[in-house]
Each structure stands twice: as C-alpha cells, then as structure tokens.
Amino acid sequence: MTSFETTAELQRLIACTAKLAAGGLTPATSSNFSIRADAQSCLITVSGRDKGRLVPEDFIRVDNQGMALDSGRTASAETLLHTQIYRERPEAGAVLHTHSLAQTLLSMRHAQDGLIEIKGYELLKAFNGIKTHDTAIRIPIVANSQDMTALCAAIAPAFAGQAFWGYLIAGHGLYTWGRDVEEAHRHLDAFEFLLTAEMTKLGFRA
Amino acid sequence: MTSFETTAELQRLIACTAKLAAGGLTPATSSNFSIRADAQSCLITVSGRDKGRLVPEDFIRVDNQGMALDSGRTASAETLLHTQIYRERPEAGAVLHTHSLAQTLLSMRHAQDGLIEIKGYELLKAFNGIKTHDTAIRIPIVANSQDMTALCAAIAPAFAGQAFWGYLIAGHGLYTWGRDVEEAHRHLDAFEFLLTAEMTKLGFRA
Amino acid sequence: MTSFETTAELQRLIACTAKLAAGGLTPATSSNFSIRADAQSCLITVSGRDKGRLVPEDFIRVDNQGMALDSGRTASAETLLHTQIYRERPEAGAVLHTHSLAQTLLSMRHAQDGLIEIKGYELLKAFNGIKTHDTAIRIPIVANSQDMTALCAAIAPAFAGQAFWGYLIAGHGLYTWGRDVEEAHRHLDAFEFLLTAEMTKLGFRA
Amino acid sequence: MTSFETTAELQRLIACTAKLAAGGLTPATSSNFSIRADAQSCLITVSGRDKGRLVPEDFIRVDNQGMALDSGRTASAETLLHTQIYRERPEAGAVLHTHSLAQTLLSMRHAQDGLIEIKGYELLKAFNGIKTHDTAIRIPIVANSQDMTALCAAIAPAFAGQAFWGYLIAGHGLYTWGRDVEEAHRHLDAFEFLLTAEMTKLGFRA
Asked: Which are the contacts of B91, defined by CB distance < 8 A and separation ≥ 6?
C-alpha cells in the first residue's frame, strides 16, 4: 500500500475499534489490532490504551518478526501473534483480537477438544469463500499462555491445514483477520454472532 | 407513489435500517431491505453494504419479477423473496429482512414443526388487524436454502392462507412487511420482542 | 403547577421517554406516559407514536375521568389507568407505563399468585419511603384485559391498601408513578432492575 | 495533587461515571464515586444525582474521617466506605462504587461463603500486579447493612491481608479502587466482565 492508502486504512481500523469497544468486545483496555503496512511491516496498537478512542499515535510499526521499527515505544506483548498471521497468510491485510464474553467462555468450555465446530447457520456465508449455510467451520482453540512463542507454536499446525479465518485462545479471546479492515470486521461480527448463538443454546453452564 | 414520496420513504427506510443495525439485527453486513416504488417495481439494497450507514445509492430498482432495471449493478441474491411479497400482498409497501439471534435460534429449534405459535401477549396488538392480547399468531418457518426459487415455492402456500405479517427461514432470519416503512418496522419490533420473550422463557437449550 | 412549570416538566418527561425507548422499554410504539397538569387534569401521550422522539404536540390534555379536553385528538386507550392513579394518589405527579421483557414475562409467570414479592436488595431503597434493604415489596399483578374499566376495577383494591409505587398487568407491562418525572423514572429504573434480577435468577423457564 | 490536577482528574471521573451510567451500572441514581484530593481529603458525590450527567458541583469535599469540609451539603451516606479505603490504601487515588446486576446477584449467591474465587481468565491481568491468567483472585463479600460503621468493621480484616482491588456488599454492589480514575475504571471493567462471565456459566439460578 502507498503511505496514503495506509493512512486511510488506519482510519478505517480506528473507526472499527471504536465500534468494537462500544459493543463490549474490548473490556478493561484489553485487545489489540493491526493492519499490514507493506510486505515487510505492519502497524499495531501499543499496550494499555482505551480501544474506544484510539488515535494514529497509538499505533507502532513493527517488522514481520515483531521487532519495533519506531524507537522509544513498546508494541503490544501479543505482537508475535499478529506477525505470524501476516507471514502465514499473504492475503491478510488486517488482524483483530478481542476479548468478548462468548469468546472467553466457549473457548474455556471446549479447550480440551481443541476446537469448536459450528454448522448450519446462514451467517457462515459471511466468511470469505463460504457460499452456503449447509457447511461447518472448525474454529481451532489453543491453551492460553503468557509465552507468545509457545502460543505461536501451538497454533502453527492450523496454518498448514485448510482455510480458516480465526482461532480462539482459551479463556482469553479471538484472533481473526481478513484481506482488509472491512473483511476482518465482517469475520469478527460473524464469529461473535455464531459463538453467542452457541452459548445461548447451551443456556450456558460450564 | 410519486418520485418525491418515494424519496421521502427511502429516507425513512435508511433511518430505520440504521436503527436495526445499531440494535444488532444485521450482523456481518447481512440483511436486506426494500420499499415498493410503484405498481411494477421496488427499490432494494445491493449486497454487502454495512446496513448501519446506507445511502440512496445503495439501493437498486428491480421489477416485480426481480429483474434489475438499473444497469451495471447487482441486487441482493434474495431479491426474489421481496418481489414475491410485493406480488402476493398488494398492500405491502416495505419489506424488512433481518438476522437476529432470536430469529436464528428459534427458527432452527422449531424448523421441524414448520411454525411457531405465540399467544397471550399484549404486544400482539402491534400487528395490523389484531385488537386483543387474547389471541395467537402462527409464524411460518421454511427450511433454509440457497435456491431462491425453492424458498419462494416453500413459503408460497402461506400466502394463500390467512393474514400474516412475517415468516422465518430456519437458521437464517425473518421476513416481515407492512403498508409502509413505519408499519413494517413496528411489525419487526413486535416479532423481535415476542421471539426474544419465547427464547428467554426456554432458558434456551436447543 | 403554573403553565411554565408544566412546560418544563413536560420537557423532562420527553427526555425520560427518549431514554426509555433507547433502553428497549417501549417496543413497537407501545407504552404511554403522563404528567399531572393541575388538580383537574393531566397531559398524556396520544396513541401510536414512536416513544423515542415525542414532541409536546404528541400529548393531549384529559380531565381526571379521562375525557379529552382538547378537541379533535384521541388519547391513549389506557388513559383511564392513568387518571385512576391521579385520583387515588394525590401525591402522584407523573405516570410511566412500559412494556419490557422482564415486566412481560415475570407478570405472566406470577399472574396466578396475583403478586410478586421482592426482598433483600439494596436497590429497594430507590422507592420513596424505603430506608433499608432488609424489607420486601409486593408488586400487585392483575390479569390483562382490553376493557379498561375492568382493569381499573381489578387494581382498585390495591389502592385501598398499603403504600405502593407500581403494579403489573400480566403479559403486558408495568405502571409506575412518582411525585414528579424524576421520581417516577427512578421508580421505573428500580422496578426494571429488580424484575430483571429475579428473571435472571430463574434462568428463566416459564 | 495541585488544585489544577484535581480539576483535571475530576473531569476524568465525570467522564467515567457517564460511561458507567450508560452501561447500566448505576440504576435508579444509585452508586457513588470519589477521588483523593490531597493527603487529608477527597471529593465525593452528593446523594441522589443521576450519575449520567454529573457536574463538578455534584461533588463535596470530605476529610479522611468522612466529615464534610464544605458547608451546607450532605455527602453520600456511604462516604465512610470511601474514606476507609483512602486511609487503608495510600496508593488509592479513586474509588468507584456501582450496583450492576452481576455484582448484586453473585454477591447474594455467595454471601455465606464470604468470597468469590475467580481463576484462569486472561482478563485477570487487568488488575494491577497480576501478570498471568494462571492465577486466582478472591473477592471478599460482606453482608449488607445500613450501618456504615458496621460495614467498615466487616471489611476491615481484608485490608490487613493480601493485596486486593475491590470487594462486594451482598445484594448491593461493588467497591473498587485504583491509583487514579483510569486504573480504577479498568479494575471495575475487569470485575464486571469476570462476574458476568461467572453468572453466565451458572445459567443463573440462585
């Protein structure tokens, strides 16, 4: 992307994160967000900001190995999970990571299975490449860890398999991506709806 | 309607859809909306837009068989379900199709019954023609399909029967209509409230 | 109240109803609202308006027997329930009637008991005259009817008993009041919180 | 803090309370809020105001024993619970007290246990001093009382023990604090998320 396009896409990301914050997906200044800037780098949120009112200065440029290219500021601890996605998925243009109730609770409940299968919903068509409700997706789940290298290793096998647009970290939240902010946001909306539907059907009791 | 009246009604539809989007009824750019323009045509949303910020240019004119009358743009895949309603119900002036959680889950749960019966609520009086809570409505449910002609055929028998103001597609959502946007919106509000009430009573477990 | 005071109080009522509408308490243009204008009359909403955007012209003046004092407009069908409160409770300055999910479902569930008892919550202190959480309130419930005279007769005995600030109509909604709009709104907030809490504890299944 | 810093922090508190009110955490004009002004005093909300639209004049200055330093106005009845925190926790710069549904219901449910233990959630890291999800917090619960001296005595032992950032009063609500408004708000967000998650897992039935 040109610098001008990156600026416009960053504005779209900021508008998107404000919406997610208003919807309760980023409790307690959690969550982090990024867009690909060019083949070698991305722009990612710094830690600890209120995600409801980000400004361009709340983003830092890091290379595809997660090293900060801007001096004097610290990227989110989870930067390595973003850069893994940009390396593994050349088509990914934006990565959204959030902490909703449904993401947290269902990922804990199904942690031992290593995945949640969701099927039969019309809204599955919101995912890039899906053309019918008469299908199923399997959302990978990895155990939570404070060691980002370990988390990257845990999710690595999924990237070698069939197409997918997001995964869960148990008791923690969702990573999802898309070709641009608009598609990543649509994927996040779809995951959130489907997980909430499954949670509602359970009349949840862990 | 005159062209001037159509423009005003389209503005009311856009205001209505923004409200529905804010209320979570149009997740992941799903849902679609239309108004009758004249005896032969209606205006309907094009696919894939964020329903929270539609503009008049996001609507396309189609005839009552669903053929686009504007060149170069594609109407929503579900256009045929809208035009069926305009053909079968001469009084219909607006059609709203949404994808809420309650619409999705209850329609899946009762799909085999082919209907949901709802009775005894004061809010039933929100439907045109109902004057007392001491009555029941039966909301038809059809199985989901990606074949719009098949969906039209499945719901066709209902149009031959007694008055009704909406139907469900299982795991997908609700179609409702009214004489104008205001009435269609009131019907949608009522369906959503009643389905949510029924879902709450179930302490939902599918 | 002077005409000036009435105008100011009506503005507070309009602001209050916009808040209630935004909170989902007035689905499908349901609900109605009034303030006492003087010893002989009150101002009450006309039927069928969107309660999220009322203007002063959406109110009509009626006397304490419910007869319209403004020509050419029709007061809400439920006017008699408002004027009964103004006659029976000289201290009442505002009456709010809403249709929330919790009001609808809990009133249906406990209709045969004729009341719901709620006890032990700190929020009970929001009601005028209650100074401790260590108490209980009994909210009367009457069966729904489209005959307003019958509804008035059904709730009449409650007005002869101990102090209370609201009652439920089964499957329909809540009537509450206060010395002014501010207090009536605080009472409504408290009823809504307490009924929602009770509904949540039930993991509702009717 | 200088007078200038106090004014700026008070503005942050007012913005925070507006957000909490919009989120339903302060039903029926309940809840109260304060910031430390200097080593000897704090600024705390007066009683009965709508917490969605506080102004600086809605705060009163009290000393660390809870005595009003401004003439002619009455501090919240629960002032003593705030000043206890400022005395016991020198690092506390802001105290938030709210009345959410989850706070109310879970504190009633676990009142006899005297605490709720919450463990394994990523969001635990929102609390000052916690660096991993692989831990647990114990939130103290005291029985409700209208005697503030008794409430202070009931919670006093907790202040002698290990670090904690909040406690519950059964059927009433949460007290939480932080080094400043921003941190107190982050702690409140985290408590609310975690309590809501636990309540959801229960499919609540008291």
From this structure: B179
- Average pLDDT per consecutive 10 residues, chain C (206 residues; last block may be shorter): 85 96 92 94 89 92 92 83 97 97 97 97 97 97 97 97 95 98 97 97 79
Disruptive mutation site among B200, B202, B204, B205 for chain C (greatest number of C CBs within 10 Å)? B200
pTM over 0.90: yes
Q: Contacts of residue C81 in chain B, CB cutoff 8 Å?
A: none
Per DSSP, the residues of chain A read --HHHHHHHHHHHHHHHHHHHHTTSSGGG--EEEEEEETTEEEEEBTT--TTS--GGGEEEEETTS-BSSTT--B-TTHHHHHHHHHH-TT--EEEEE--HHHHHHHHHTGGGTEEEEES-GGGGGSTT---SS-EEEEEEE---S-HHHHHHHHHHHHHSS--SEEEETTTEEEEEESSHHHHHHHHHHHHHHHHHHHHHHT---
A202 contacts: CB under 8 Å, gap ≥ 6: A109, B205, D203
| Residue B97 backbone phi and psi in degrees, to 5 | -125, 120
pLDDT category of residue B1 using cuts at 50, 70 and 90: low
- pLDDT tens digits, one per residue of D133-172: 999 999 999 999 999 999 999 999 999 988 899 999 999 9
For every residue of D87-101, DSSP letters joined together read HH-TT--EEEEE--H
122-161 of D, contacting A, C-beta below 8 A = 122-123, 126, 131-134
Report the DSSP pairing between strands B59-63 and B94-98: unpaired
For residues D151 and B41, give the distance between their C-alpha atoms in angstroms, rounded to a whole number: 70
Give C176's strand partners: C96, C166
Alpha-carbon distance C52 to C17, whole Å?
A: 6
**Which fold is adopted by the domain A3-201?**
L-fuculose-1-phosphate Aldolase (3.40.225)
Q: Is A162's Cβ below 8 Å from some Cβ in B? A: no
ipTM above 0.90 for this complex: yes
